Amino acid sequence: MIGRVILAAAVVVLFGPGIETEAQDGTCDSLREQWAAALSSLQAGIENLRREKEDSVAPSIYRQLETSSPPVSIAKAVQSALLERKRRVDAVEREVRALADAEERAFRSWSACHASSGLRKAVSGSVDPRVVAGQRQQLLVRLDDLLLDEAYLQYRGTRPRRPQEYSGYNP
Amino acid sequence: MSTVTEGHEKTFFEGYRTRGCCGIGTACRETVGRQNRFLEDRKATRFGRTRATCVAFLILSFFLIRPASADIFAESPPLWEPLLWGGAIASEPRRTTVDLQAQPPQVQDDIGDRLERASRPSAPQFSPPPPRWTVPTLAVEHEDVFQRLPYRVLSLRNIPPLYTSPVIPGEGVWEWKDMPTGRDGWPILYRTTYRPSAEYPNATVHMLLLDMKHLTLELYVGSTEPGGSESTAKIEPDRKADLVAITNALWKHRHSGNAGSIYRGKVIRELAQGVATLVAYKDGSVDILEWNNTIPVSLVNHAKQLRHLIVKDGQVVGSVVQGGQTTDSEIGLGYLLVEQQPSDRGGQWGGYWGYWGGYGNPGPVHTSGAEWFLATRSAFGIRPDGNLVFAVGHHISTKDLAKALVLAGCVRGIHGDANPFNVLGNLYYVDQGGNLYKKAKLSPDQNNHTLTRYVGSSYASDFFAFFLRNARGGAS
């Protein structure tokens, strides 16, 4: 009886990881596909955000100047158009941030799966997450630029103020 | 026991004797005995009453009188402080609405204010302790308001002083007395002085509120600036009759990074996306905003840019993003920030303003060290009603200057020139014949020689001039 138990344990030890890896390979492929879909959604979201940010406020300004009754000043028409744009951009930014979070989660899941399966056995034909990391990083940098407050684009290349240069206020 | 020695008792028995009770032997002794017992009882009763009163008083004192806390005598805390940093206000400054339809000013009663506030939904973000202070009563000169003529309505909310001592007369109260007026004698400019800083009590701001429904803003390009010449740097002779004020503009081009400008519809340098911009449109309306490249430049008459907004969405901008990091929002150019300047105001104001302004020594002293940001500065703010506020601050940080603009009702603000030799607010008085007969300074700490520029002679740096609008209501 004890001999049979030892034999069964030996079988599991010898052949178990192989079975598991094959099962994991299937899961990793599925996770990779999920990540690819999330990345594609994020790319579409970033493109949408870029379009919204570059969309001209001029038509809205002219429309208000022509149709508003009583007539509004140019300053009011511009502010109104900018407010409208801000609402649209804020909504798209929220969507893009959610898509970026989803992509991040999908990528981590796939990376973790790939790492665990790779420890046991090199799977031929599987895509390494490290291969796409560079491409992904470029996309995230572009996203950071798009999400940066436009007022501070001017300071993108400047040195941040050091703590001793602070004014003492910390609202 | 001596019973009948004291005033009241003595009188009592004297009266008793007078009625003849003690004239008969034993009866008299008994009577005296009764009198003694009576007096003892009465004294005991009085002592008991006194003791009971004292005990009651002590008990009442225990429950009713609390010792004064250490900070009960502190100066008025700023009720509106949380509002500046994004919180909600629980107790508003007293409002003075000046209705110019031949009505006296409607100064809302404090109780009325409290009732009005009580009926509003409570703000969840900020719950201040119950007030133990009194908001100073702001003076309103009824006679002056009665002198105003009908048609115009401008809502002015006075700012309760942060400091109660020493008193600056009229601090936080918008005044138009002795200011240039419209052709019809109506107010078009208002001024006040205020100390906005909780940390630096000697930071003083002089503010000018410009009624832009009746004024138009023109940029003049300094003779040494790009696009400038002798002719772009001084007021044209035929416009002197409409001139009411001149202020400094923003920084010189060479110090302004990628900031752009537009002069009389001509682009001197492309406006940059997102940069804080003071703009005057072709219909005479003005604004302060973060520039968007898709706003049609054809609508713009004048524009100047500098850095970031210092007031945004009605709040002081406390931090900015630089090089990917959130950092302090103070604006400065290192050694170019100057704190002190020669004081040429003489002895009349020297003591008082010398103390508050701190300008005892002649000669510029560049700011440095931990308090590098305290300097002479200027700023512009725009109110929701489209009116502009110009502020000159001495010994002040960007944020405290921005705070003053917020208290003046501004929703967006931009930093102006910070060179004390160029920071100025000049007021011009023109008579019925169109002759300039008087000039005045907004800030007493402003250099006198700033009054000699701009009219009749050109100047090297940019400046803004404010003119009365023409009869059609558009820009002159």
Poorly predicted runs of chain B: 1-32, 66-151, 341-363, 471-476
How would a textbook summarize the main sheet of chain B?
5 strands, antiparallel
* H/I helix tally of chain A: 4
Query: So what's the overall shape of chain B?
Result: globular
Distance separating the two termini of chain A? 74 Å
Distance between the termini of chain B: 105 Å
SS field, number of helical segments of chain B: 7
Tell me the series of helices and strands of chain A, N- to C-terminal: HHHH
Class from helix and strand fractions of chain B: alpha+beta
Strand order of the largest sheet of chain B: 4-5-20-19-21
Number of domains of chain A: 1
Mean pLDDT of chain B: 73
- Helical proportion of chain B, percent range: 10-25%
Q: What portion of the residues of chain B fall into strands of 2 or more residues? A: 15-25%
Over all CA atoms, what is the radius of gyration of chain B? 34 Å
Largest sheet of chain A: none
Q: Please estimate the helix content of chain A.
A: over 70%
% residues in beta strands of chain A: under 5%
Oligomer: heterodimer
Please provide the count of β strands of chain B.
24
Largest interface: A-B, 38 and 49 residues
List the helices and strands and how they pair.
The complex is a heterodimer of chains A (171) and B (476).
Chain A: H1 2-54, H2 58-67, H3 74-120, H4 129-147
Chain B: H1 7-18, H2 25-64, H3 81-84, E1 96-99, E2 106-107, H4 110-119, H5 142-147, E3 153-156, E4 189-194, E5 204-210, E6 215-220, E7 243-248, E8 261-263, E9 266-269, E10 276-281, E11 286-290, E12 300-305, E13 311-312, E14 315-316, E15 319-322, E16 325-328, E17 338-340, H6 347-357, E18 365-366, E19 375-382, E20 388-396, H7 398-407, E21 412-415, E22 425-430, E23 436-441, E24 463-468
Antiparallel strand pairs in B: 1-2, 1-3, 4-5, 5-20, 6-24, 7-22, 7-24, 8-9, 8-12, 10-11, 10-12, 13-14, 15-16, 17-18, 19-20, 19-21, 22-23
